[in-house]
Amino acid sequence: MIVDAGANQHLCDPDWNNDTIIIGGNPTATGGIPPYTYTWSITPIEAFFPGSGIYFNASDLLNDTTIPNPVLIGVYPMNCLNTNYFRLTVTDALGTTLTDSVQITASSFFHHLLWYGWTINQGDSVFLNEGSNVGGGIGNLSYLWQPSHGLSDTTLFTGFWAKPNTTIEYYVTVTDSMGCQRTGSPLYYITVNPLSTNSTLKPILDFNIYPNPTNNYIIVETDKHNPTYTATITDIHGKIILTTLIKSKTTIIITDKLTTGFYFISISDNKQILRTKKLVKE
Length: 282
Known about the structure:
InterPro entries: Secre_tail. This is Secretion system C-terminal sorting domain-containing protein. Residues 209-279 form the Secretion system C-terminal sorting domain. The strands form 8 sheets. Strands 10, 13, 15, 16 and 17 form a 5-stranded mixed β-sheet that branches. Strands 2-8-7-4 form a 4-stranded mixed β-sheet, with no helix packed on it. A 4-stranded antiparallel β-sheet has the order 21-20-23-24, with no helix packed on it. It has 282 residues and is mainly beta. A hairpin with a 5-residue loop joins strand 7 (85-91) and strand 8 (97-107). It contains 1 helix and 24 strands. Helix content is 1%, strand content 43%. The chain has one helix spanning 58-61; strands spanning 2-3, 9-12, 29-30, 37-41, 45-46, 55-56, 85-91, 97-107, 109-111, 116-121, 126-128, 134-136, 142-146, 160-162, 168-175, 181-183, 188-193, 207-210, 217-222, 229-235, 240-245, 250-254, 261-269, 272-281.
């Protein structure tokens, strides 16, 4: 008899993606004398903190511990590579028993909504040292601040200069050692006053949304148009709810399926966020 618990898997932000994760082989058991009985188990994981007395078992993390290919319904703990080994025991009709195991790990990120703003004159600089609004993940983290315009370094966690020549918003994409990523909402807002009132300097992009608060739809009006522009609505955790092309300077976006709450709407060009605003769904 051959038993296969399946390939090890690492999940990126399982709280926010909609992937269905199935474990077990294809097939999970062969040979021996069918029918087979399947039992999935784990070493109980103490939750929250040592001494809590609360433990997670396989039945808390799988939809069924007695089938060959159960669906993963939870991963705990996050951001740790030496946990979540699922042990599979298979017994055939003659009582022959074999075991195999599979490891499921996950990167989870957090994202806070604080932001910082400055107003400067054109030609002045700002030292940005408030860290990142995205954290978590596994191992060493790398950072990429965007847009790169005006930044002395785009790869530092904190402690770099910004000298933009136009009003701008900076956001960061964080990548962990497993290649999992999370992009935050803008953390730094810098308004640049032109040196002359005759200056025609404008932000990279500006747009209006109305009605806001909204119910069934919003109208997005941009001051310029590019066929590569996209609008993305994210919730307060950074989860992407909706993405659509901006087909003209005036675009209608249906929002009737959004639940009541606060959101962010961003206009991007080739995945680079140009500007972000808050959206309220009633």
